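SEQUENCE, STRUCTURE TOKENS:
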Amino acid sequence: MFGNPSIIVTVPEACKRVLTDDQYFKPGWPSSTLKLIGRKSFIGSITYEEHKRLRRLTAAPVNGHEALSLYMRYIEDNVVLALEKWAGMGQIEFLTELRRLTFRIIMYIFMSSESEQARKNLVAIFQSIVDERREWRKNGPKEDMMDAMLNVEDENGRRLSDEEIIDILVMYLNAGHESSGHVTMWAILFLQEHPQVFQNAKAEQEAIVRNRPPTQKGLSLKEVRQMEYLSKVIDETLRVVTFSFVVFREAKADVNISGYTIPKGWKVLVCGLGVFTSTPKSTPTQRNLILLDGIIGDMANMAMYWPISGFTPKVGTFLPFGAGSRTCPGNDLAKLEISIFLHYFLLNYELERFNPGCRVMYLPHQRPKDNCLGRIRRVS
């Protein structure tokens, strides 16, 4: 299927081993993905040492406390404006509007501007932006990811090359808006399908607002960290939806896992994302390859374990952002964006779907075929 002999791994211990053992496994993404994202991105074929360097240089501007505090105000302002606008538009494709919103947010975070160009134009555009930014910086810096990447240097004084900056931007722009938009949509659909969970999540958000100092305007990062129930809602959505249904690795040498020898050069598809589920009245139940179950079934079956049970999965079962040294570097930013949107939606809005029985498409990402056609209504 992927141009190489491949093996699918679902057992928790094996998933953990493949994702954390950098001695025997390396990234094994299909060549088409590497061409699209770029050879110098985090998911590319760069060496372990080079990946470690790039991650160290770019981690703080994405997931650091100061960075998240800076970005959240822009996210919050755009979420509030978008919901108000959608409530007055009548019929909308909810998923399409969410993707536009998340793209606008991620573009601002990284370059303080907006664009909807295709990959073949993005590289040329980004190169011109990098060149222009180098000139603008003579008059003073800007507080965005572009500036951070132009400034950062390693312990040897080595800075990021233009190719590294561009490939990292393309990777983040793609991952940073597609996943957030889709997961937000599914979280809202699941919440509305389970009224008690909706009310529990809403009560938590109302308590946060009620306990806020009278002089405070808008959310604080501390308040987002207090959203324990909503965090579980997001995690449960990530488990059920499995946005990135596999993580690709390739064996660097013959290696034995769980009694099976994986030959050198074989692709290893890690599918540990959500394979364990449970309900309050049952023991943990293994459902191998929950996404594949969904392809031959339907979303109702996939969501059968809502509401949240509080079950703690074994290491290697819940991997929405991967694991090991190559864990998704934007995981905190993604959850922050989703949390802010759900906060305001739960407090003031509801979604009326026009085609609640609409069939679900599963490739490249699972979504209703009508992109969740409906109407946003203000309820307070």
